[in-house]
Amino acid sequence: MMLDATKGEVQRSLLEKELESVGIRLNKHKPNIYFKPKKGGGISFNSTVTLTQCSEKLVQLILHEYKIFNAEVLFREDCSPDEFIDVIVGNRVYMPCLYVYNKIDQISMEEVDRLARKPNSVVISCGMKLNLDYLLEMLWEYLALTCIYTKKRGQRPDFTDAIILRRGASVEHVCHRIHRSLASQFKYALVWGTSTKYSPQRVGLTHTMEHEDVIQIVKK
């Protein structure tokens, strides 16, 4: 989320409220609550932890507001009433968010320091090209991306044209990215990098690649 550092917290607060209103939850995880509507039997309520924000009576009142009179509810963590409502509605989206404060060259050093110390935040200046390298590192981290290099037999790896995949991608994902028919012609692959015990290591389609690995694919 790109923000104007000169506007303080006003802009961020407005954008967060807009996203909250349409069911998007930033930097939050899905509440660990088991909820299952039933056809009969009333409301069965249990918890595996001590609840400080919800009670059985409050849970029943919330369910009745949503015209639910038969259900199983199990709290596995101490959640708020709003989080329980999110579970009932069931269409909330939980996603990570990186707050990027631009124009830090127009505010005081004290304010820059305060913003930089906030969780999930990066301070930059596009105009003066300040801290852009760190922003790029954080984007890779938040997007969970990994960079894979390819190598042809008898040649050096091509470090100028990387394949960008999600973290946890396998050799099969690399094959599909190169060409959709390559996986069906796959025999084995040689991999150099941190994902192997030794370099090169002969691997199959299910081998998980890691950042900046080098791969050479051998066809049948």
TrEMBL record:
Coiled coil: none annotated. SUPFAM superfamilies: P-loop containing nucleoside triphosphate hydrolases, TGS-like. Residues 1-144 form the OBG-type G domain. GO terms for molecular function: GTP binding; GTPase activity. Pfam families: MMR_HSR1_Xtn (PF16897), TGS (PF02824). InterPro entries: Beta-grasp_dom_sf, DRG, G_OBG, GTP-binding_2, P-loop_NTPase, TGS, TGS-like. Keywords: GTP-binding, Nucleotide-binding. Residues 144-219 form the TGS domain. It comes from the Eukaryota. This is Developmentally regulated GTP binding protein 2.
